[in-house]
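job 3f2a | input accepted
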Amino acid sequence: MNLKTEKLLKLMRFLAWIAFIGLLIKAGAIIMSFGVSVQNPEAATNLYQGMDLSRYANASFAHYTIIVFYYILLYLLQAYIALFITKLLSAINIEKPFTQTVVDLLNKIGYTILAVWILSIIHNAHVIGLEKYAEIDAAPFANEYIFLAGIVYVLAQLFKRGVVMQTENELTV
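job 3f2a | predicted structure (173 res):
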């Protein structure tokens, strides 16, 4: 393996681990802040790093709880993706990049990104409904996840085809 490529893969794996740990910390901080906001409703104005969900807490505690759950689930799913990326970067072999392990990890990443997109659609429908009926300014999630899931799916299919071609090549040699 090229020394430069090996160093780059190690750096990317290190950064993916940092992202994984950071997202877990973010989800944990929101859980802890939510616990504090249950006892002290004013804490909802700055739930985590300026995240103001007080408008939902003032309207309905049930809706506030559900929206906080959306955020926690979003960050946990993103951490799960980062974990798969660390595994993917560990599994990549430059000499033989097309392995079933890489294909499986790419599929898992794609399906998890698809789950994040579905979660964002549910969240956005919920906050838009609250905006209409409770007159609360909505703060929807971004919806770029479907495009990213599509790209990862295409990559998984390319690697799947690469596994077949690499296996056929090994059999003919």
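job 3f2a | The chain is about 80% helix and 0% strand.
job 3f2a | closed
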